[in-house]
Amino acid sequence: MAADEGTRGDNVVPIKPDRGPPSGNGAPLMPADLAERIARLEASIEGLRHSQNLTIGATAAIGGVLAAMIVGFGVYGLQRIDQTQESISREVAMTRQELVGVATAIANSITAARQMQPPIIISPAPNTPPSPSAPSKGK
C-alpha cells in the first residue's frame, strides 16, 4: 500500500475512515472532512457524467453530419456517373453513324471502280480527198 501512495497525485491522500461510536441505527459516524470529500467526489463524478453525455452528443452530431455528407456526395457522384454514361452513349451513337457513312462511301467507290465501263476506242481521223474548189499548186 505504501507503493500506491507514491504513484498518486500530491493532492490525493488515502482515506482511513475513523470509526467512532455507532449512531442510533448502528452505522459508524463519518468525520466531517470525509463527508465533504465524498460530496466533492460525487459532484466530480456527476460533472464527468455530464461532460460524457456532451461528448457523446457531439460525437453523434458530427457522425450524423459526416454520414449526411457521405450520402450527399455519393448521390451527387452517381448522378455525375449517369450523366457521363449518357454522354458516352450519345458519342458512341454519333461515331457509329459516322462510321456507317464512311463505310457506305467507301463501298460506293469500290463498286463504281469495279463496274466495267465500255471501252473507248480512239480511231484516227479519216483521210479526206482535197476539195475541188481548192486550186492546185502544181499548174
Helix content: 55-70%
Structural class, judged by helices and strands?
Answer: mainly alpha
What is the averaged pLDDT score?
A: 78
Largest sheet: none
Helix and strand layout, with pairings?
Elements: H1 2-7, H2 32-114
Q: What would your notes on this structure say?
A:
By secondary structure, the chain is mainly α. The chain has a domain at 28-110. Helix content is 64%, strand content 0%. The protein has two helices and no strands. It has helices spanning 2-7, 32-114. It starts with a helix and ends in a 25-residue tail after the last helix. 0% of the residues are buried. Residues 1-9 have low confidence and may be disordered.
Quick structural summary:
The protein is mainly alpha-helical. The chain is 64% helix and 0% strand.
